[in-house]
Design brief:
There is one protein chain. By secondary structure, this protein is an alpha+beta fold. The chain has 15 helices and 10 strands. The strands form 2 sheets. Strands 1, 2, 3, 4, 5 and 9 form a 6-stranded antiparallel β-sheet that branches. It has a 4-stranded antiparallel β-sheet with strand order 6-8-7-10, with helices on both faces. It is globular, with a radius of gyration of 26 Å.
Length: 505
Amino acid sequence: MGAASNDDNEEHEFGEDQPANNDAKSSNHTDASAQQAMTSSTKSSPADSSVVFSPELLGMYYARLFPYQMLYSWLSYDPATINPKSNNSNNHSSKNGTSNNTTFPRREFSMTIEPTPGNEVYIRYQSFLSQEELTTAIQKRRPTKIDIGAVFNYPPKDNKSLPSGKLQTQERELVFDIDLTDYDGVRNCGCDGAKICPKCWSFMGMAMEVMDEGLRNDFGFEHVAWFYSGRRGVHCWVCDDGARKLTNEARSAVATYFEVNLGSDKNKNFHLSSPLHPMLTRAYDILEPRFVESVLPEEGHALLSTRASWTKLLMTLPKQANSVAAKLEEKWGSKKDNTTPEEKWNELKSALSAFIGKTGSSKAPKNMSNADRARVENWPVETVFKYVYPRLDINVSKMQNHLLKSPFCVHPKTGRVCVPIEVSNFANFDPFQVPTLGQLMKELDDYEATSKADSDTEITFDWQKTSLKEPFEKFQKSFLVPMLNEERRLQREEREKRAAVMGDF
């Protein structure tokens, strides 16, 4: 047991936990304290939707709305769990989720609990034999945060009884973490840190589209799930069998493939090699229209909406193109000029192409080297990437032994659920409309006050009575069911292969 991580840090490294403070107690004492401090009825007075988060609301969420069956079905990779049969309204006491699966019991979970207000405790190496055990542990401890780790060769809960170095990772989803704080240097909307707005949230959609295209087209992955982190970022889980079996070296290679040096505070200059890698060309084709729409205008990040802003941008042109910058500065500053930010951007690109002799009848200056020419030619790409190319926390992706926040849990700072996001429908996803705990309990109250749930045969889980119904059911239909069907096919092929070897047909 060790110290809880910072609220904003949503991943953890494998390693020994450190004491939270001098008052840290044993795990047995912690569990007892947590149970005593948090024991209360899951029934409450009518919900107040203005309260976004509280220990009582969290307990009710874990008792009634947390999708245990869905999480178990996913992390066990067991096709037998694909269709829940229980109609238990609490969706947690059924044993349908328990099977002969050997993957789930070797999966590591960690929990951040708060036995008393302000006293956070971070518990590592938790593992559970079944969905029922996981449910019991979560409802008992009411963690403010749940993290998911790798599948080990032994149940992680046995780590202290194993010889040193015996517990080893076997597989783990390939994961990516993208956080808006990494865009602080280019967020001209007034946001920084944990603060977000619709203007800067659009960066997440651009990053998701680039990453999703690359993962599917360049690596052939099919089972890619995206989730809202609950506050200011997104998480990606690549769950194909091949992705889960990747070595640390292979994970590092995949993550590095997407990495682009965007410069730093000390060195703001970065240059792409020429010709561009096809992946970067595709990324530019995806990002540039969104850059024009979301970054350039006044209603975006105002990169080309005022004289001060376009002067600042023109100053980033390579010095070889100073004449282009001077001409455009003069033209755009004229009272007669009424071009829009988009028109200015297109005019700037056309002027640069003509300057290097790529278009029009003019030729590039004789004293311009090939390297300088490439630098001018790539400047639009570098500018777009500087603002909107995915900024990955690459260390999260490189190692099997990293933990990442569990989907479906609740961010304690916002009270919002970590819901699935569809890449194709990102434009309609509003993080400010993701329900909080207070809103969800109000939805439950309203549903049960106006509906006879007992007569509704389509209600299997209580989350179907709330606004979680749409994102959860879409996740099941578009991701979980196809993935488990693929897992069933792989298992059948493996059985047939073994039968062929043994001559058992």
